[in-house]
Structures are given as structure tokens and as C-alpha cells.
Amino acid sequence: MLDQIISEIEQGNDETKDFHYLTNEIGKNMSEVLNAVSEMTNIIENNKASSENISASSEQQLATFDEFNQITLSLNNLVSSLTEQIDDMEQNIVKKTV
User: In angstroms, rounded to a whole number, what is the distance separating the alpha carbons of residues 85 and 98?
Assistant: First the structure.
């Protein structure tokens, strides 16, 4: 009976050692997983920042293009007005010479 108790205690001790080893291995693997997740989080944050920068640049380009478009429209109106004035002047000159 005492031998059986000793045998079961030794078996329990061996199982405890195995459990301890497995727990350490799981801890190491979890550490690697946590490092990988942390690295992926950093990559995602960097990508987000890059996307935000690209978006901001695109908005600035659009604003610049809109401003350029407005300037072009204004210039076109000025040229049309100037053309009309020149036409009027030519007609006046022709009338005076006739």
C-alpha cells in the first residue's frame, strides 16, 4: 500500500513536471504571439497614418485644382469682356472713318 502511494506521488510529480514544462512552452509561444500582434498593430497604425497623409494631400490637390479652375473661369470671362470691348472699338473706328 505504501509503495502504491509512493508510486502515485511520483507519477503526480512527473505529471506536475510535464505540466510545468508545457506551461512554460505555452508562455513562450504566447510571448511570440503577443510580439507578432504588437508588430502588426504598429504596421496598421503606420498604414493608417500614411493613408491619412495621402487623403490630406488629395484634398489639398483638389482644393488647389478647384481654385485654379475658378481662376481659369475668371480669366476666360475677362478675355471675353476684353474681346467685346475690342470689337466695339473696331466698330466705332469703322463708323468714324465712314
Answer: 20
Write the pLDDT tens digit of every residue in 25-41: 888 889 899 999 999 99
Q: What is the DSSP letter of 84?
A: H
| Residue 97, helix vs strand vs coil | helix
Q: Which three cell numbers, joined as nine digits, stand for 1?
A: 500500500
DSSP per-residue string spanning 25-59: HHHHHHHHHHHHHHHHHHHHHHHHHHHHHHHHHHH
Enter the C-alpha cell of residue 20: 510545468
Distance between CA atoms of residues 84 and 94, nearest Å: 15
What does pTM read for this prediction?
Answer: 0.52
Q: Which residue has the higher pLDDT, 28 or 69?
A: 69
Q: State the pLDDT confidence band at 98, using cuts at 50, 70 and 90.
A: low
